[in-house]
Write a structure and sequence with these properties.
CATH class of the largest domain: Alpha Beta
Function: Catalyzes the cleavage of L-kynurenine (L-Kyn) and L-3-hydroxykynurenine (L-3OHKyn) into anthranilic acid (AA) and 3-hydroxyanthranilic acid (3-OHAA), respectively.
Bound molecules: pyridoxal-5'-phosphate
Number of domains: 2
Number of helices: 12
Structural class: alpha/beta
Low-confidence stretches: none
Cofactor: pyridoxal 5'-phosphate
Pathway: Cofactor biosynthesis; NAD(+) biosynthesis; quinolinate from L-kynurenine: step 2/3; Amino-acid degradation; L-kynurenine degradation; L-alanine and anthranilate from L-kynurenine: step 1/1
InterPro entries: Kynureninase, PyrdxlP-dep_Trfase, PyrdxlP-dep_Trfase_major, PyrdxlP-dep_Trfase_small
Protein name: Kynureninase
CATH superfamily of the largest domain: Type I PLP-dependent aspartate aminotransferase-like (Major domain)
Largest sheet: 7 strands, mixed
Length: 398
């Protein structure tokens, strides 16, 4: 059994805070300052340029990629880290489209995170043929997978409602009609068990600053099925993906047969030290234990809110098997109410138009946090604290 009291003790969460936003930005591992300091004083400062070899900086995209990949069931050598998730979405969809050159439809859904849709819009503009992005309601995606579709691009767990797509069913149907599937696992990795190998995924992308706790702006990742590695077309043909980067040839030749071809350019090596420290915590975590605890804590949270907080309505699927690891509630005054919660030390977030969202992250959240958070919400509603003037103004980042 995973020891969740032990994992909780590995995070440095401000005294008195109940942090229900680890689905958006994970908290700092206690080992992070030492890891960053060691990078500065033992790697960058003494080694300087030699560090690319002596400290293996050049291949950390792959060594860390393998560690991230393990958490989604990816085989070694099929995942790299670097860049941002938006860029990895672009790369994966571009690669998918070039695998099905005779089709013109990209299928996603209208619950997808906007940047994923925006990146596809930009990609379509670059193509000199007419492409179409279809975004049906999430529940209509399965019916939309037809032989017109080149790429199905979905985020497994909806960033607002927590609703989860059936990964296996989508892949089976897509492959049956000859389409390629790109999964965005931003709200899946570290939240729910994923096995990209068993599900026969083509492409998977995600970030490491949410449930993996690697810090704001931490590197993204991309996984490509081994069966595709030799043929996948890297639209972002940077020198890091070249067959021989240090030959400095004037023409691009992708690294044959390796995930290296999905690397683009020089990554932030400093951020890798934080990612490495964050990944250490996952070494002893069993994803099935994590899932069981996430469901237990989520169910408790939902039932406590439903009995104690009138006017606040649950906004996700009832069946926990159809959800990820965050839960959302609609409330007409969701924005000021969330600001009042934050002022009282209960940190969730607000997603327009009226959603209050809470991440249930078992690595550092326990039963008393859940009950404590509901106590605060109940009090805010009873006293109508959310009506206070100071909770009405919108910040740039919600
Ligand atoms: C968080 C998130 C992103 C963020 O993309 P960045 O490039 O890291 O800013 C993209 N897609 C989904 C589905 C997300 O949840």
């Amino acid at each position: 059994m995973t020891d969740f009291a032990k994992t909780r003790a590995m995070f440095d969460i401000p005294e008195g805070m109940i942090y229900l936003n680890g689905n958006s930005l994970g908290p700092m591992p206690k080992t992070a300052p030492a890891a960053m300091n060691s990078f500065l004083t033992e790697e960058w400062q003494p080694e300087l340029i030699k560090g690319w070899n002596t400290k293996n900086w050049f291949m950390q995209t792959n060594t860390l990629g393998d560690r991230v990949g393990r958490l989604i069931g990816a085989a070694p050598g099929t995942t790299v880290v670097g860049d941002t998730l938006s860029i990895k979405v672009f790369q994966a969809v571009a690669a998918g489209l070039s695998m099905v050159p005779d089709r013109r439809v990209i299928l996603s859904d209208n619950g997808n995170f906007p940047t994923d849709l925006y990146m596809v819009e930009g990609l379509m503009k670059l193509k000199n043929k007419e492409y179409e992005l279809r975004i049906p309601n999430p529940e209509d995606v399965m019916a939309g997978i037809t032989d017109e579709v080149a790429v199905v691009m979905l985020t497994e767990v909806d960033y607002r409602t927590g609703r989860k797509h059936d990964m296996k069913a989508v892949i089976e149907k897509a492959h049956a009609v000859g389409a390629v599937v790109v999964w965005d696992l931003a709200h899946s990795i570290g939240a729910v068990p994923v096995d990209v190998t068993e599900a026969d995924t083509d492409f998977a992308v995600g970030c490491t600053y949410k449930y993996l706790n690697a810090g704001p702006g931490a590197p993204a990742f991309i996984h490509v099925a081994s069966r595709l590695l030799n043929d996948v077309d890297p639209a972002l043909s940077g020198w890091y993906g070249h067959e021989a980067p240090f030959a400095f040839d004037t023409d691009y030749r992708p690294m044959p047969g390796k995930i290296d071809r999905m690397r683009v350019g020089t990554p932030s090596i400093a951020s890798f030290s934080l990612l490495s420290a964050a990944l250490d915590i996952w070494e002893d975590v069993d994803m099935n234990d994590l899932r069981a605890r996430s469901i237990e804590l989520s169910e408790l949270f939902i039932s406590e809110i439903e009995t104690r907080c009138p006017g606040v309505t649950f906004a996700g699927p009832r069946n926990p098997e159809e959800r990820g690891s965050h839960v959302s509630f609609r409330f007409e005054h969701g924005y000021p109410c969330m600001q009042a919660l934050i002022a009282a030390g209960v940190i969730g977030d607000f997603r327009a138009p009226d959603i209050m969202r809470f991440g249930i992250t078992p690595l550092f959240i326990n039963h008393s946090d859940i009950l404590g958070a509901v106590d605060v919400l109940e009090r805010i509603l009873k006293n109508e604290t959310w009506k206070e003037e100071r909770f009405q103004t919108r910040s740039k980042v919600t």
